[in-house]
Amino acid sequence: MSAEEELGRLEEEIKECQRCELWKTRTNPVAGEGSLTAKVLFVGEAPGYYEDLKGRPFVGKAGKILDELLGSVGLERSEVYIANVLKCRPPGNRNPTTGEIRACTPYLDAQMEIIKPTVIATLGNFSLGYIFDKFCLKRDKISKIHGKVFNVSTIAGIKKIVPLYHPAIATYNPGMKEVLVDDFKELANCF
Ligand code: URA
Question: Domain containing 147 — which CATH number?
C-alpha cells in the first residue's frame, strides 16, 4: 500500500473513531495535513474551536503564528506535516486527559510510521510529554530545553526531536515571538 493509501485509511479510521468520549462533542476530527514525504513533523496538542469547525490543524490564531514561523525559515505548510496529540477537540479547549492521550496516540504513532520524518518538532507541553516519553528522553522544563536538538536512535535511523513552545504563547506574550523565531532557526538547521 502506498503512503497516500495508508494515510487515507488512517483518516477514515479517525473519522469513525469512538475510542474516547471526545467524538460525542467534536464537529470534525482533525487528522493532520501536509506532505507525505515531509522531513519535519510538527506535533501540536489538540484541535481548538476553528480546527474543530474546519477539520484542519492550526487554522486559528496559533495557526497564523505557525505559518509566520514557517515562513521565517522559508518553509510552507505543504512541505511539512502538521498533526496533533489528540485528533478531536476537548470541550472548551480544556487540557487533554491521560486516558484521551492513551486512546488517541496510536494514530500519531501510525502517522510517524507512514511519513517517517527525520525531525519531530513538539509544540507545547502535552506534545513534549508524549514524544519525549515515546523516545525515552528525559523530560525537562520547556523553558530549559526549547530550541535544543535531541538525537534519538530508532530502528528507522536517527531522529531529531526539537521541543518548541506552543505558538499560542505569542498571542498572550508577544515577546515570545522572538524566542520562537530563534528556535525555528535551530529547527531549520536540522534538515
Ligand atoms: N493548537 C494545537 O495544539 N493544535 C491545533 O491544531 C490548533 C491549536
Answer: 3.40.470.10
